[in-house]
Design goal:
This protein is of the alpha/beta class. It has a single domain (about 1-135), classed as Trna Endonuclease, Chain: A, domain 1 (3-Layer(aba) Sandwich), CATH 3.40.1350. It is built from four helices and six strands, in the order H-E-E-E-H-E-E-E-H-H. A six-stranded mixed beta sheet has the order 1-2-3-4-5-6. It starts with a helix and ends with a helix. The relative contact order is 0.17.
Length: about 140
């Protein structure tokens, strides 16, 4: 589901990263930055137990302009419940190959200082991953 969701986001002009650790220690399944610097977090859920047991998702809103769920088709109806805030949270139905927007996420702009901090952290995360991927000795040279 992550791959299918990231493919859709990329095609729509987003630059996604997966498993991004936020300043508060929570980890976003997908964080994406748009062409104008807007930030989207997508939480992936694959089972009803995983979805219904999640108590951390509201923390993600402090680090993004928009928040959305990505779920397989059989979970989409659960996300109409008030506890999942369907009025503001987006909804993607996804599998490993593709995704579609069922409900767009509403936009609530981050404060400028938070946007700068989140954008810098996002850029540094992407740069570190690129360096790790191109340098097999990455972990060793950090102690130089």
């Amino acid at each position: 589901m992550v791959r299918g969701t990231c493919r859709l986001l990329w095609l729509q002009g987003w630059s996604p990263l997966t498993e991004v650790t936020l300043a508060d220690g929570h980890r976003a399944d997908i964080m994406a930055i748009g062409r104008k610097g807007e930030i989207l977090i997508v939480e992936i859920k694959v089972s009803a137990a995983d979805l219904l047991g999640d108590r951390k998702w509201q923390h993600y809103r402090d680090y993004a302009d928009s928040f959305a769920w990505a779920v397989p088709p059989h979970l989409a109806d659960h996300l109409a419940q008030d506890r999942f805030d369907p009025g503001t949270c987006g909804l993607l139905v996804a599998d490993r190959h593709e995704a579609i927007w069922v409900r767009e996420a509403t936009h609530s702009a981050l404060a400028p200082a938070r946007r700068k901090a989140v954008t810098l952290a996002f850029a540094r995360c992407g740069a570190e991953r690129a360096l790790r991927g191109s340098d097999p000795a990455f972990d060793g040279f950090a102690s130089w």
